[in-house]
Amino acid sequence: MGFVRAVKETTPYDGQKPGTSGLRKKVTVFKQPRYVENFVQATFNALGEKVKGSIIVVSGDGRYFSKDAIQIIIKVAAANGVKQVWIGQNGLLSTPAVSAVIRNRVGPDGEKATGAFILTASHNPGGPHEDFGIKYNTENGGPALESLTDKIFSITKTINEYYIAEGIADVDISECGTSTFSGPDGPFSVVVFDPTEDYVNLMKHIFDFGAIKSLLSRPDFSFCYDALHGVAGIYAQKIFVDELSADPSFLLNCVPKEDFGGGHPDPNLTYAKELVHRMGLGKTDPIEEIPEFGAAADGDADRNMVLGKRFFVTPSDSVAIIAANAVGAIPYFEGGLKGVARSMPTSAALDVVAKALNLKFFEVPTGWKFFGNLMDAGMCSVCGEESFGTGSDHIREKDGIWAVLAWLSILAHRNSQAPSGGKLVTVEDIVRVHWATYGRHFYTRYDYENVDAGAAKELMAYLVSLQSSLSDINRIIKDVNPDVPSVVKGDEFEYKDPVDGSVSKHQGIRFLFEDGSRLVFRLSGTGSEGATIRLYIEQYQSHTSKIGIESQVALAPLVEIALKLSKMEEFTGRSSPTVIT
Ligand code: G6P
Ligand code: ZN
């Protein structure tokens, strides 16, 4: 079959600015005529020379509108001289799997993909009236850096034409196989492949599947994995059930749905309700058969939440515990860790591990791309964020299933060291031993979602102005609660990338207390409506007698200070947050 390249006139759309995680808007916005075409053409224009003869990956979390977008992108790619488009069967590929495909999959002549359009709005709901997104990832498998996304945005503002292949019928993406067409630049093909293949191979190379399999086969071990109807389900089925022989009843919501079953595919204590219930959190009455281990993923499977029986592992603790246990439990890290990193609002639990193990340590702004730079330079092996993202340098995205396999590996390793025939070493045991060794960082995050954008800006500006006087800050604190330690420093976080020297400013407002406690305020970069204010509250405790108290109890005084200091209710009109994690 042949096609011709048609040049179509277009006019720019406002606001096609890719954020931290790509262009994310309501489906109704994406459905406007030429909206997808403009953005994809602008991306190809920004990539320039690299496009002709390249291989481009296109797939995502399977949310509503993905299938339409895939057909459009195939045609725009063909007309721009792309040689091959690689698509996961049914248009599915998790974000970490895309990263693995870009880095590892090879074409017929041994060539690799140049980049990928990932079709996802991550943890945001999906459906005709919900969110869609397009994110471009580059050669290293990571999200495009700001230099590229700025260029794309500036092109979208003046775009007046796009190319599209005419004469190509819609490609059947429900079956694996190759469709080839002849075009003005030579043959063009669409390759549909098994979306689990590259990713599963990579996981087998990183982890000891035999050891995990033995853990899963213990009669006293049970597990529940909730994919929240996102794309993680297909990987969970393949890895946990087909490869590791887990009981299929361990899988919850593992069939991907275009609208995530009407839910909010975000793995946290608020939205992963069914899992939280099964794991017995918030209940004191004895429930039969609570699984020993629970985990969930977001829509595109890069986020994770880890739970034990009636026990929540904070993401900040999770990365610290993985870093502390990686060598010995995970074959990929046999040679040691090159370094570790966390985002600024993430608790300092990882810092303590880095210090104790004498590891290179980095504190970066929120956003996975900052880790990517460190990893490309060989400076970081394990990293994580409070926003339920954990990962390593095996790819350049955070990785939800990887985090679960890391935890299963640690559980398997600890149990293999325990006396045989003894009681199971649980998630809670591992966390409590960690706290006893390194101290505990009590941590919570308050989210005020969909706040008036002007009010949110005013609150942030007020906090910055407050920071000019430490004595004013401490006066407010002492008035509220004289027992709370003083603030010794207030600033806006700024980061100079040690690899490329770039400087990122205004990355969050920090109040640092003399006992190491912290309050951080930042505006979310991923919302699609109004503004979301995030308040992060952290307190370090190394006294063994105090480590076991309830997190909400330990943090209550700091929460009160944070709300008073920021005049949260006055600015936002909200007396309580929408989500607490
Ligand atoms: C995405 C990024 C993460 C980041 C998170 C922050 O998930 O991939 O690296 O931590 O957004 O979101 P926020 O809404 O707090 O800006
Ligand atoms: Zn995600």
TrEMBL record:
<feature type="domain" description="Alpha-D-phosphohexomutase alpha/beta/alpha">
    <location>
        <begin position="197"/>
        <end position="307"/>
    </location>
</feature>
<dbReference type="InterPro" id="IPR005845">
    <property type="entry name" value="A-D-PHexomutase_a/b/a-II"/>
</dbReference>
<dbReference type="InterPro" id="IPR005846">
    <property type="entry name" value="A-D-PHexomutase_a/b/a-III"/>
</dbReference>
<comment type="function">
    <text>Catalyzes the reversible isomerization of alpha-D-glucose 1-phosphate to alpha-D-glucose 6-phosphate. The mechanism proceeds via the intermediate compound alpha-D-glucose 1,6-bisphosphate. This enzyme participates in both the breakdown and synthesis of glucose.</text>
</comment>
<dbReference type="Pfam" id="PF02880">
    <property type="entry name" value="PGM_PMM_III"/>
</dbReference>
<keyword id="KW-0313">Glucose metabolism</keyword>
<comment type="similarity">
    <text>Belongs to the phosphohexose mutase family.</text>
</comment>
<dbReference type="InterPro" id="IPR036900">
    <property type="entry name" value="A-D-PHexomutase_C_sf"/>
</dbReference>
<protein>
    <recommendedName>
        <fullName>phosphoglucomutase (alpha-D-glucose-1,6-bisphosphate-dependent)</fullName>
        <ecNumber>5.4.2.2</ecNumber>
    </recommendedName>
</protein>
<dbReference type="GO" id="GO:0005829">
    <property type="term" value="C:cytosol"/>
</dbReference>
<dbReference type="InterPro" id="IPR005844">
    <property type="entry name" value="A-D-PHexomutase_a/b/a-I"/>
</dbReference>
<dbReference type="Pfam" id="PF24947">
    <property type="entry name" value="PGM1_C_vert_fung"/>
</dbReference>
<dbReference type="Pfam" id="PF02879">
    <property type="entry name" value="PGM_PMM_II"/>
</dbReference>
<comment type="subunit">
    <text>Monomer.</text>
</comment>
<feature type="domain" description="Alpha-D-phosphohexomutase alpha/beta/alpha">
    <location>
        <begin position="16"/>
        <end position="162"/>
    </location>
</feature>
<keyword id="KW-0479">Metal-binding</keyword>
<dbReference type="InterPro" id="IPR016055">
    <property type="entry name" value="A-D-PHexomutase_a/b/a-I/II/III"/>
</dbReference>
<feature type="domain" description="Alpha-D-phosphohexomutase alpha/beta/alpha">
    <location>
        <begin position="316"/>
        <end position="416"/>
    </location>
</feature>
<keyword id="KW-0413">Isomerase</keyword>
<dbReference type="InterPro" id="IPR005841">
    <property type="entry name" value="Alpha-D-phosphohexomutase_SF"/>
</dbReference>
<dbReference type="GO" id="GO:0000287">
    <property type="term" value="F:magnesium ion binding"/>
</dbReference>
<dbReference type="InterPro" id="IPR016066">
    <property type="entry name" value="A-D-PHexomutase_CS"/>
</dbReference>
<dbReference type="InterPro" id="IPR045244">
    <property type="entry name" value="PGM"/>
</dbReference>
<dbReference type="Pfam" id="PF02878">
    <property type="entry name" value="PGM_PMM_I"/>
</dbReference>
<keyword id="KW-0597">Phosphoprotein</keyword>
<dbReference type="GO" id="GO:0006006">
    <property type="term" value="P:glucose metabolic process"/>
</dbReference>
<keyword id="KW-0119">Carbohydrate metabolism</keyword>
<keyword id="KW-0460">Magnesium</keyword>
<dbReference type="GO" id="GO:0004614">
    <property type="term" value="F:phosphoglucomutase activity"/>
</dbReference>
